[in-house]
Amino acid sequence: MTQKAPAVLTGRHFMNGDVACAEGALAAGCTFFAGYPITPSTEIAERMAQRLPEVGGIYIQMEDELASMNCVLGAAWAGRRAMTATSGPGFTLMQENIGLGIITETPCVVVNVQRGGPSTGLPTLPGQADVMQAKWGSHGDYEVIAYAPASPQEMFDLTVKAFNAADTYRLPVFVLADEVVGHMTERVVIPDASAIPRAERPQPPFPPGEGLLYQPLDGALVPPMPPVGEGYAIHATGLTHDERGYPATSAEVHDRLVRRLRDKILRNADRIIEYEEYLMDDADVCVVSFGSSARSARHAVNAARKRGIRAGLLRLITVWPFPGSHIAVLSERVKAFVVAELNLGQVETQVQRFSTRPVLGAHHGGGEMLTPEAVLNAIEEAS
Amino acid sequence: MAPAERIADAHPLDRLLRSDRLPHIWCPGCGLGPIMNCYVQAMLDSSIPLERHVIVSGIGCTGRVPGYVNIDSFHTTHGRAIPFATGLKLGNPDLEVTVFSGDGDLFAIGGNHILHAARRNIDLNVICVNNFNYGMTGGQLGPTTPRGAITSTTPYGNPEEALNLVHLMAALGAVYVARWSALHVRQLERSIARAFEKRGFTFIEVLSPCPVGFGRPNELGEGLDEMRLYRLECVVDDDADLADCAIDLRAHRPLVLGEFVDIERPVYGEWEA
Fold first, then answer.
1. Which of A122, A120, A134 is nearest to A177 (CA)?
2. Closest by CA position to A88, among listed A342, A361, A381
3. Residue B77 and residue A233: Cβ atoms within 8 Å?
4. Which ipTM was obtained for this model?
5. Are A148 and A290 in contact (CB under 8 A)?
6. What is the pTM of this model?
7. How far apart are CA B223 and CA B217, in angstroms?
């Protein structure tokens, strides 16, 4: 199909986070979406169904989330920038094949617009309780990258980043949004196409028939990803495999493989991790938050300052890898942490791991946005 | 007996096999060797360049086939070969994508996917090796296990009706449906070649001996005995009523083989809205 509309809608827009996420994907060069509708992510699929044919891409609504995830993996091997979007229960169904994406080192993007759970939970209402599912949802040892947008603008920007991180490190990368940012409508500025950064997959430096396809390049811990159909005789398997890609189910090969899958993220964590600090220079109380909750946390920090409490905000832009060493450094400076999140303390336990100071939770199980008052109360208690 | 004298340095199909991985892991008497050989031969005979052929499987004994074929090959999760292959094919329509997997993988855990891929008429070839049980996991009940058969999870006999795969696939609109056995290698090779030529969703069922997992508990003898059964009991009838083509290896009723369906139907993605 010939291109009928630009992939990058350069300009100022008023759009909701789900739509901004879809536009971010298109701006990043995504030409393949396979998904299964689930609230509150559905507008991403609907926007992609509308827009992908306009830009010569492919949208397919699969029969379920397991099929969606596998279809995305196949399309990624076919050379596409591919993505799917879902919510908590669908994310759960995808987990086995997210694991396949991890072990076969397949770059793609998985958007999870979180709602309340477990199970069907609160289909139309917000939650942020998939933080640990994003990290540990599939079986086995591995590390992930998860971005947590706090605005429609970040739904756009971080979706672009997710595609670039996926290609750089060769794995499924998560956009861990929530219902509030998915359905919130705000101004979104889309830059010129030339200003959209683009990372490429590492290519084999050798012709077909030579070289080891799973040998990492130059100490980067990421092996080359040859294109399908060009004679490289790729073998990609969910089984533990050696540097040829051949199944090799020994403890030694397995340890070498999973250690590399872990280390390619952890050793590059400084390049991957992003956060934003607000009024942290002199803060006694550090509020740690992410996604929609960080907006309430920012209000609460301002309110606390008015009451004479030196509060600041550490807003996590990547929740995974977790910025543990930065929490450790901050804990030398602040008296206490408050972790504001729409779950019963998933990031709080992470902060506790790295902090030498008291850590308080400002929690809500989900169903409505975390209020600034709840965060302010915790700040006052901590100060 | 003296060791066999080496009379050839290479097998004619070596370049299409990952010979450095041989010997394979399959049991003596298994049908997978000849079936894989048919696939490889059909690829060689096809007019499609070898680098454009891609093979995808789920798991299990048949799932290991891609690991031995020296082309772009994907060994995915249990039951999910078809959606993975769908992404590959839609992502790069120049590829000739063949899903080569087992009856349990494709029709139990993967049942939902094969149903919808056939309905959509995705341009894929599916070769389903039917050995009537879950072989690699230790001979358990599968969706093609005949009623009454003994497996490690049906010690009193299978109480379930088996799926009639060719009947189902024809009903779902597959553009090419055939059934052969691992003994019918010439016919199977021709069928695979035909599937490569066809545009749309093609399905080939291949009855395969599983002497260890299924043959032994059901007193079918060794792999060769099951091959002999195919020689004695199989009839070729391209025009058979597929509703009558269910399989019961112990019933001494004809096992109907043939090319049952060869039709044209719009292929997914080939129409303008």
1. A134
2. A342
3. no
4. 0.96
5. yes
6. 0.97
7. 13
Asked if A201 and A155 touch (Cβ cutoff 8 Å), the reply is no
Residue A236, both tokens: 């990609």
Question: In which band, very low, low, confident or very high, does the pLDDT at B2 lie, cut at 50, 70 and 90?
Answer: low
Size of interface A-B (CB pairs under 8 A): 138
**Measured distance CA(B13)–CA(B22) in Å, rounded:** 13
Q: Check: CB of residue A143 under 8 Å from CB of residue A261.
A: yes
Distance CA B229, CA B184 (A): 12
CB contact under 8 A, B87 and A74: yes
Residue among A99, A57, A104 at smallest CA distance from A77 = A104
Using a CB-CB cut-off of 8 Å, the residues of chain B touching A66 are: 79-80, 83
Angle, alpha carbons B211-B214-B215 (nearest 5°): 45
How far is it, in rounded angstroms, from Cα A123 to Cα A38?
8
d(CA A359, CA A30): 40
Contact B192, B218 (CB under 8 A): no
- Gap between the Cα atoms of B69 and A245, Å rounded: 13
Contact A33, A7 (CB under 8 A): no
Show which of residues 66-95 on chain B sit within 8 Å of chain A, judged by CB atoms. Answer: 66-67, 70-77, 79-80, 82-92, 94-95
Residue A8 has pLDDT above 70, yes or no: yes
Question: Which of the four pLDDT bands, split at 50, 70 and 90, describes residue A243?
Answer: very high
Nearest residue to B201 (alpha-carbon basis) of B123, B88, B113, B96: B123
Residue with tokens 């396949």: A100
**Secondary structure (DSSP) of B108-158:** IITHHHHHHHHHHT-S-EEEEEE-SSBTTTTSB--TTPPTT--BTTBTT--
DSSP class of B212:
I
Close Cβ partners of A77 (under 8 Å, ≥ 6 residues apart): A106, A228, A234, A236, B74, B87, B88, B91
Query: Residue range A213-242: average pLDDT?
Result: 93
Q: Tell me if B66 and A247 make a contact (CB, 8 A cut-off).
A: no
Q: Tell me the residue ranges of DSSP E strands in A57-153.
A: 58-61, 81-86, 108-116, 122-126, 146-147
Residue A21: phi, psi to the nearest 5?
-60, -45
Tokens 């890609």, residue located? A245
